[in-house]
Write a structure and sequence with these properties.
Elements: H1 4-21, H2 26-36, H3 40-45, H4 54-58, E1 63-72, E2 78-89, E3 95-101, H5 107-123, E4 129-135, H6 144-158, E5 167-170, H7 177-191, H8 212-230, E6 239-242, H9 247-258, E7 262-263, E8 265-268, E9 271-275, H10 281-290, H11 296-302, E10 306-310, E11 321-323, H12 333-341, E12 346-348, H13 357-365, E13 369-371, H14 373-376, H15 379-392, H16 399-423, H17 430-448
Parallel strand pairs: 3-4, 3-5, 6-7, 6-11, 11-12, 12-13
Antiparallel strand pairs: 1-2, 2-4, 8-9, 9-10
The protein binds NADPH dihydro-nicotinamide-adenine-dinucleotide phosphate.
Length: 452
């Protein structure tokens, strides 16, 4: 039997190989390190996982599609963006994962997101594989007509790669209900099929699930509450800092408030707002969801309890809880040190990989409960899978039923991560628990299905 340290040496060699074979993809390297650095205990304990080629297959996407997306802006000028879909692993079900429209998107970013998605989807216990896609298109400042033309051009290539039994995209940064609507319309037009289960996050009334918009934020708050419960505490009366002001941030703030916590911040790429009375969600939704404005408008209209800090980071505001809900690597070592100094008890990731590895290490060393995104933000994809189930049965469930299922799934993910970490000698380490539990489920399916 190989020891843990021999296994770690093998995994370290593989990580070097991954960096070599995938140059200039730092986010993908970071995501691969984060997972492979925690797998030694399970690979050493279960020899079948050391089978040559298993982990090598896991880190290589099954398929990567890159394509040109030409479209015309309102002035008639032709613009050219790049589209991506990385179909990473389908051992557990059709590829499933969102589309991101943001200027920072490149192949490495999509691969990091797709890799994370494999384990996240496995943790939900539902039958979904891992994938991700998007474009370097920036929807900010674009008219509805421009966004529609872009989405139609994007789908004109993407449609041939997706399908309810093949690959089912959803939203992510820059892709919400409006974009999913345009994408779905174009898919329907090209294929001449009403195939509701090809995209999730659809509008209510044409196949969308109730609670899907809320699911990622609500689920993350439920995960944070479960981590606090392990420590004999609850959310009531806790102060929380939340970053971002998009889909995930808004519904994180909504659930925190409903459960008695005081969410005092939100942000966007221009800076952050701190509101000592707690974020007024009606105002934030009006500015962000209806007007598509910036967060400084919130401070202007809210009155004396709120102020806008241009360029700042929410982590400097003292709080019991931190819920990063914007983007990758938005909480670094310095931010973690500040949070710890201010007495933070738990950090739960609504965004994907928002906390740098150094910051995660520091938080865990300081005894802060840390919920990694692949567990804590899995509620979104879980309700997407429930949307697929409703589409398949041509039915729609009540909000109460979906929310109950979401709560059960988040509790089960928390328990799985917690118990798995204990079983492999890392009590309280949700990163190790999530990675190993997700890996076991995918690896078992891959081994059973042969070398493909
Ligand atoms: P949205 O586009 O709705 O909101 C994104 C928010 O983050 C905006 O406030 C945006 O500000 C801010 N932001 C994005 N990029 C940056 C950046 N580079 N620097 C500073 N701020 C930034 O996206 P979502 O809320 O859907 O996604 C947020 C995070 O949650 C992402 O990491 C996503 O992968 C993750 N996630 C989302 C799920 C979902 O269901 N939507 C599911 C699971 C995870 P600005 O407008 O100024 O760019």
């Amino acid at each position: 039997m190989t020891t843990r340290s021999e296994t770690q040496t093998t995994l370290d060699h593989l990580l070097t190989e991954i960096e070599h074979r995938n140059p200039a993809q730092p986010e993908f390297h970071q995501a691969a390190h984060e997972v492979l650095e925690t797998l030694a205990p399970v690979v050493a304990a279960r020899p079948e996982y050391a089978e040559p080629g298993l982990i090598e297959r896991l880190v290589e996407p099954e398929r990567q599609v890159m394509f040109r997306v030409p479209w015309q802006d309102d002035q008639g000028r032709v613009r050219v963006n790049r589209g991506f879909r990385v179909e990473f692993n389908s051992a557990l079900g059709p590829y499933k994962g969102g589309l991101r429209f943001h200027p920072s998107v490149n192949l490495g970013v999509i691969k990091f997101l797709g890799f994370e998605q494999i384990f996240k989807n496995a943790l939900t216990g539902l039958g979904i594989g891992g994938g991700k896609g998007g474009s370097d298109f920036d929807p900010h400042g674009r008219s509805d007509a421009e966004v529609m033309r872009f989405c139609q051009s994007f789908m004109t290539e993407l449609y041939r790669h997706i399908g309810e039994h093949t690959d089912v995209p959803a939203g992510d940064i820059g892709v919400g209900g409006r974009e999913i609507g345009y994408l779905f319309g174009q898919y329907r037009r090209i294929t001449n099929r009403w195939e509701a289960g090809v995209l999730t996050g659809k509008g209510q009334g044409w196949g969308g699930s109730l609670i899907r918009p809320e699911a990622t934020g609500y689920g993350n708050v439920l995960f944070a509450a479960a981590m606090l419960r392990e420590r004999g505490e609850d959310l009531e009366g806790q102060t929380a800092v939340v970053s971002g002001s998009g889909n995930v941030a808004i519904y994180t703030i909504e659930k925190l408030t409903a459960l008695g916590a005081n969410a005092v911040t939100c942000s966007d790429s221009s800076g952050y707002v701190v509101d000592e009375k707690g974020i007024d969600l009606d105002l934030l939704k009006q500015i962000k969801e209806v007007e598509r404005g910036r967060v400084d408008a919130y401070a202007e209209r809210r009155g004396s309890s709120a102020r806008f800090v241009p360029g700042g980071r929410v982590w400097e505001v003292p709080a019991d809880l931190a819920l990063p809900s914007a983007t990758q690597n938005e909480l670094d070592e310095n931010d973690a040190a500040t949070l710890i100094r201010n007495g933070v008890k738990a950090v739960s990731e609504g965004a994907n990989m928002p906390t740098t590895p150094e910051a995660v290490h520091l938080l865990q060393q300081a005894g802060v409960a840390f919920g990694p995104g692949k567990a804590a933000n899995a509620g979104g994809v879980a309700v997407s899978a429930l949307e697929m189930a409703q589409n398949h049965a041509r039915t729609s469930w009540t909000a109460a039923r979906v929310e109950e299922e979401l709560a059960d799934i988040m509790t089960s993910i928390h328990t799985t991560c917690h118990e798995t970490a204990e079983r492999y000698g890392a009590p309280g380490d949700y990163v190790t628990g999530a990675n190993i539990a997700g890996f076991e489920r995918v690896a078992d399916a891959m081994l059973a299905q042969g070398v493909i």
